[in-house]
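Hi Y.,

Following your request, here is the sequence exactly as I used it, all 200 residues.
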Amino acid sequence: MRVDAIPVERHPLEPFVPGDARVLFLGSFPPPRRRWCMPFFYPNYINDHWRIQGLVFYGDAGYFVDAEHRCFRYEAIVEHCERVGIAYYDTARAVRRMADNASDKFLEVVEATDVPALVARLPHLRAIVTTGEKATETLCESLQIAAIPKVGAYVTTPFLSEGGVPVELYRLPSSSRAYPMSLQKKGEAYATMFRRYGLL
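Below is the corresponding structure, written out as tokens. Let me know if you'd prefer a different format.
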């Protein structure tokens, strides 16, 4: 099939931007809807993003998990993110899926997110956080950041917070189970990041 025959998929969610957020997670793009268990970011039940946050903030990987219904506790997640100060969106607003799955490597970015406009809505922002190679590369290309950070590292971005502090781009390990790192180790990496920006 020709690339231009593959339909363009537009982002199905609005940015989640609590006004006092200090950390903005930017993924690549949501998985196909059949893999969703809730109408929010990281909606795939087998992705461990919300288990990691449960472990980090509440000492319980199952804190946001509704095991009986194989889904996440959507209302609890929204309340947590608003209270702690975590924003969410993705680096692409429109993509083509070159394969019918959730893998980032098969996404062709058709329209990148206007990150400066998004950051402008977050005056207290301290860090943009990516958790995958595709999101990190797309963001660095969009912002013309030459040095792509390694996992667990960070670089400065062109943005400044309200207090004139440079906003950092911090790269974390992927929360996908395909990423070869234990849940505990991922939790430790995420906790280090959250502590750096005063969320823990």
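The radius of gyration is 16 Å.

Thanks again,
Q.
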